[in-house]
């Protein structure tokens, strides 16, 4: 007896696989962004310490909570979610930060990372729309709202 039941949710396996692959890239970007933001929270110094320390904590907490939603959507589509540093390193579009940058360099790096994560999320809409995958579209819309708003707030700190 075959114990693995076929998934029949109105999308082909090819559609589900393509969406899960894209969501895996989004999960990798999101995890890299989370880890980078948490690192910066721990290591920020200078006159803006308190402001950035608290802001980074709010951002990494939000990011941490989002990871589960993305991974669970991949699982709901019938695929394993990536979950190792190696897998995330291969899938992410965000470069690892070496050393401890100065406070405003941290902010600049996070602007790039927020925007990169938004681009990854946005890149999935074509396949998601073609598959009429409203739950994933909803997830992507929520993530885009957060990443675009956070990038704007961080960019505002870089203005004179």
TrEMBL record:
Single GO MF descriptor: DNA binding
SUPFAM superfamilies on file: Ferritin-like
Pfam families on file: Ferritin
Keywords: DNA-binding
Domain Ferritin/DPS, residue spans: 23-159
Gene3D superfamilies for the chain: 1.20.1260.10
Membrane-crossing residue ranges in chain numbering: none
Family listed: Belongs to the Dps family.
PANTHER family membership: DNA PROTECTION DURING STARVATION PROTEIN, GENERAL STRESS PROTEIN 20U
Protein name per the record: Starvation-inducible DNA-binding protein
Taxonomic source organism: Sphingobium xenophagum
